[in-house]
Design goal:
Blueprint: H1 2-12, E1 22-27, H2 33-44, E2 48-53, H3 65-73, E3 78-83, H4 88-95, E4 100-105, H5 111-125, E5 132-136, H6 143-152, E6 158-162, H7 171-179, E7 183-187, H8 192-197, E8 200-203, H9 214-220, H10 228-231, E9 239-241, H11 262-281
Parallel strand pairs: 1-2, 1-3, 3-4, 5-6, 5-8, 6-7, 8-9
Length: 283
């Protein structure tokens, strides 16, 4: 469906699949790509959006998430929610009559990012089957990694984990990879050997906002960097991905390398979210 959306946008610019539909965007955490791509996706489908962030909502007056969702549920045909609470998507789904789309719930999941990541891999490489995918960086709080690992269980692939021990992949997710026979190399360093075998290197930002102990953040924040020197060891047809935003973990010198897929990844995201909105909201 995402591929059909891509062709439709390239051909017509705007489709009228969701004409007269209204999408409510509710973001309790900062967002550039997710919020704007949902906004763009809805408008490309001929629909309209209401955008609300926490600073302009009644949560400042003590309103509960449940009451806010019930309010928006009266106005729109679906709600996109990002919230720092791991249980927020469940709370919202219980409160609403209309569909809730999870745009990130705490450090737990980011399912729409996982869909666009998988679509990126398929568009750039052809398939996820037979690939070696290396996750690098903050794997503990990196909800995009957790969600993508869940999707990748449907594919025959090997997953490498590269992270400081303090921010390694949660054991529940790691044991799932291991039980499925997908777990590959585990390392605290991105070695030339790991790079050379990778078809996808997926970088993640060390998220300062998730750390209760800032001294631990300072210890690990610059420990892993993907640079032009890193890619000297990489395959010619591999790709580098990143959900963005980035800090120092992904050097800007990589941007002009044709293997840098992270800006294309954003565009793929709009097509995937168009597909999701159409499937969820079309009559």
């Amino acid at each position: 469906v995402a591929s059909e959306m891509r062709l439709g946008v390239e051909r017509d610019g705007v489709l009228d699949i969701l004409k007269n539909k209204l999408l409510c965007l509710m973001f309790y955490e900062p967002s550039t790509r997710t919020s704007s791509s949902f906004d763009a996706a809805m408008k490309r489908l001929g629909g309209q959006c209401i955008m609300i962030n926490e600073s302009h909502s009644s949560t400042k007056k003590g309103e509960t998430l449940s009451d806010t969702i019930r309010t928006l549920d009266q106005y729109g045909d679906a709600i996109v929610l990002r919230h720092p609470d791991d249980d927020s998507a469940d709370i919202a789904a219980e409160a609403a009559d209309h569909p809730i789309i999870n745009a990130g719930n705490g450090s737990r999941e980011h399912p729409t990012q996982a869909f666009l990541d998988l679509f990126t891999i398929r568009e750039e490489v052809g398939t996820a089957n037979g690939l070696t995918i290396t996750f690098v960086g903050d794997l503990k709080y990196g909800r995009t990694v957790h969600s993508l690992c869940e999707l990748l269980k449907h594919y025959d692939c090997t997953i490498n984990l590269v992270a400081p021990k303090e921010i390694g992949l949660p054991e529940k997710v790691r044991s799932g990879l291991q039980s499925r026979g997908q777990l590959g190399a585990e390392s605290h360093e991105l070695t030339p050997e790991i790079v050379a075998k990778s078809d996808v290197i997926y970088c993640t930002r060390v998220q300062k906002e998730r750390f209760e102990d800032l001294s631990l953040y300072e210890k690990v924040k610059d420990g892993l960097v993907v640079s032009a020197a890193t890619l000297k060891h990489a395959k010619k047809n591999m790709i580098v991905m990143h959900p963005l935003p980035r800090n120092l973990e992904l050097s800007p010198e990589v941007d002009n390398d044709p293997r840098a897929a992270y800006f294309r990844q954003m565009k793929y995201g709009m097509f995937v979210r168009m597909a999701l909105l159409a499937l969820v909201m079309a009559s």
